[in-house]
Amino acid sequence: xxxxxxxxxxxxxxxxxxxxxxxxxxxxxxxxxxxxxxxxxxxxxxxxxxxxxxxxxxxxxxxxxxxxxxxxxxxxxxxxxxxxxxxxxxxxxxxxxxxxxxxxxxxxxxxxxxxxxxxxxxxxxxxxxxxxxxxxxxxxxxxxxxxxxxxxxxxxxxxxxxxxxxxxxxxxxxxxxxxxxxxxxxxxxxxxxxxxxxxxxxxxxxxxxxxxxxxxxxxxxxxxxxxxxxxxxxxxxxxxxxxxxxxxxxxxxxxxxxxxxxxxxxxxxxxxxx
Length: 274
Description:
Layout: H1 6-32, H2 37-43, E1 58-59, H3 60-80, H4 89-105, E2 113-114, H5 116-139, H6 152-174, H7 210-222, H8 230-258
Antiparallel strand pairs: 1-2
């Protein structure tokens, strides 16, 4: 049993309820998204957004960097806390650490701002995902300390997802043209947006969004790592719904931008099916 002061126990209880509420609200919001324009606008970001957000303190580049650095630090701490230990934290730590590196060294971001709501939601997502094992153990009638060992097959699937997603992100970065520079060659003209070309290679031969496909497979594989708990199931359900929707919108964006030049055999998210 985890023994803590009364006030801290009250905090943990409140956070357990809040983390579950977070996933429920997120799933309900996505269910209402087609019918509520305000929710749709808040959940749409990046190149799919019709306009830049009005309220923002960070650019998308700095927002994603801050989010993944925060997640990597939190996961790194959780791994070494016995009461929070779980096999899913090892792949999650590896995942967010790699994504932080990609945001710093691989991605080519525009100057678009990231909405404050999107930033807060992203931070909340990783807080709930990483602290889920601890709060599940906290509320369990028979809490047990898990090891960090991962079964071989889920481990191989998770590593495949990491490698393939990294490859997809590198291909996407290569598909964005560089910003034009002035005559001195040292000042980017921010009025010239990055130009997209059709991504080629890797899993892009089969689907429009292999980075979303591998992310979905990654989180589904986490269901088979460690103990199952409700928050984990809600998290995976949200990831599938969220990325399926974004993959569909990305596919439509590619088709509207490139027209007949876009490969007709490519599916949205699931090779050969959808």
